[in-house]
Amino acid sequence: MTYASPTYVEETRLGFRFLATHTWQHHVLRVAINDLKRLLGEPLPRGGVLLDAGCGQGKSFRLLQAAFAPDRMIGLDADPHSLTLSRAEAEREDIAAELIASDCARIDLPDASVDVLFCHQTFHHLVEQECALGEFWRVLKPGGWLLFAESTKAYIDSWVIRWFFRHPMHVQKSADGYLAMLRAQGFVFDDANVSLPYLWWSRAKDFGLLERWGLRAPPPPGQREETLVNVAARKPAQA
Question: Whole-prediction pTM value?
Answer without folding.
Answer: 0.95
